[in-house]
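User: I'm putting together notes for a lab meeting next week and I want to include a structural view of one of the chains we've been expressing. I don't have a solved structure, so I'd like a prediction I can at least talk through. The sequence is below, exactly as it appears in our construct file.
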Amino acid sequence: MATIKDIAMQAGVSSATVSRVLNNDSGLSVSEDTRARIFAIAEELDYKPHRLKRLKQETERARKEIALLLWCSPEDEREDPYFTAIRRGIEIRCEDLGIGIRKVFRFASPDVLTLQSVDGLIVIGSIDPQDIERLYPDKKAIVLVDHIPSHREYDSVTIHFEQAMEDVLQHLFELGHRSIGFIGGQKKLVRIGVQHQVEIVPEARHTLFERLMQAEGIFDPQFVHLGEWNAASGYQMMNELLSKPDRPTACFAASDPIAIGALRALQEHGIQVPEDMSLIGFDDLDFSAYVQPALTTVKVYPEQMGKTAVQLLLECMEGREAPAHVTINTKLIVRESTGTP
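Assistant: Thanks for the context. Below is the predicted structure for the 341-residue chain, given as structure tokens.
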């Protein structure tokens, strides 16, 4: 592909002169013969300026259409805004790039014909890759968000859960806690077109919590409770935790909605936070800073995950071959709900 330097060598002038001529710089003092010679050589070498390449690229992107496939129901999205924020990031980035979103599907009602007519697919949440392939066989045009299958043939974007759990437990260890509980939701792998549509699979926060606590020699299985990803389940799980003869001095809730339900249960039992029990959430949703006490939590970036998914898909559609896996870092936000035992 010809460059400005190639044109300058043939024309016998500097690269700066070629650049200014091709950009119609009116302040440049150069003879008409030189100007004409530069344009003739550029045409002969089939030179394409960057702005023309960008225009062509933008035009091609404007013809692209993708589809979204979500594992969760509208009710799940209302109860936990995490997936809504991912979708918002996708929509923002698609609008910036001029890429159209053909349709958003839930796992229960994918339209095979519509899916196969789009240029790419972004899957949000845990859907079995075999089912995805059956609906949309082009692996190179699929990006998985918030789920990494064991065989990494797809592009994916996920949270750095290991960093998050290390930060959570390190914070509690530094405060002096050794007896720590865990309340969280179960991870459900959705199957499409299968009689038993949901399969319970290991969830990263739960798995890492147990592993890190066992490494410290302080894991107590009676302090672990699993349920759903909402406030009602958090309330129930904390009540179950408090029904034990002993209770931990701190508890990690695997989402902010779960933490809010847990906080309500603690208040009803007259247990002061953080004096009697420290509590940490996960998400840093908008309300987390305004509950009483303000919630210590792990900040995640779901909107950035959505934007990153679009960028990965665009790279695939424009020729990248090797699958890419992006891990988005987290940040521990320390507020009022954690303190010394």
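A couple of points you could mention at the meeting. The first helix runs from residue 4 to 11. DSSP finds 13 helices and 14 strands in the chain.

User: Perfect, that's what I needed.
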